[in-house]
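Hello forum,

I keep getting stuck at the same step: I have a sequence, I want structure tokens, and every attempt I make locally crashes halfway through. Rather than fight my setup again tonight, could one of you with a working pipeline run this one for me? It's a single chain of 309 residues.
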Amino acid sequence: MFLIQHHNATDPAINLALEEYCLRNLDPGSEYLLFYINRPAVIIGRHQNPFQELNHQLARQNGIPAMRRITGGGAVYHDPGNLNFSFITDFGVEKLDYFKTLIQPILSTLQRLGAPARLAEKNDIRVAGQKVSGNSQHTNMRRMLSHGTLLFDANLEMLQRVLASNLVITRSRAVSSIQSEVANITGHLRRPIGLDTFRAELVDGISEVFGDLMEYRLTASDWEAVDLLAQNKYKTWEWTYGRSPEFDVHHSIKRESETIAVHFTVKNGIIESFELTNQSRVSAPAHAIISKLIGRRYDLALTGDLAGI
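Reply #2:
Ran it on my machine without issues. Output:
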């Protein structure tokens, strides 16, 4: 197995692009392991709705972007106290359960350090009943990406607050996250260690199972391709928001002497229609203004500006 070396990038778009690029382009005859740390971000699953998964007002105030990954599952919060790992391996029907083999040395390392870790349903890692790791997979039917988070010393208060939507979603076809009680790994270790030491312990534990990890360095042209993928996909509205499954969202808009109760239907991130629940009491000018929103992106600017229409 190869351990992919990178430039210590903390841009979540770069690291998501790096995972996808390596999955699609590295030698299919080898297995790879990648570790990375992101600056604060909310990473949503492939089939999720970002508006449903985070508090956009709080995220905007704190400069926390939302980004969509290629794997399924629920939304996770990343920050410098969260260590992310990725395994890139062959795909095969006989390997659908291979993730349990890949994750075992991580469980063993946590246990060796004093944290009584176990693999729970949905492939979560829990310690004393609290979730410390969420994991998900993606395959292109040739190669498989199995990756997860490790809450080492993350800001759990921000995690809880930012992963709570401040919108009233009344109907959604998106996959919803399952709320869990979370904890940091540091609170369960036998002795205090830093994140670098923790990563080194994981490398040792994985090496015991898969043999010595050989270093793999991407070329300059590889990095150019990763950057291009980050710019053209992961940093775009079309990927993160435009791929959102259809949903309905309710807004109460106060305008001059009236309060307008409106339900928007949003498809592919675009306002497709609306319904006024108190239409008889809505003035013609206000109705006309709302009508002009049809065909517009349902985005952060809109959710912040509705009160002023």
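The chain is about 30% helix and 30% strand. If your local run keeps crashing, start a new thread with the error log.
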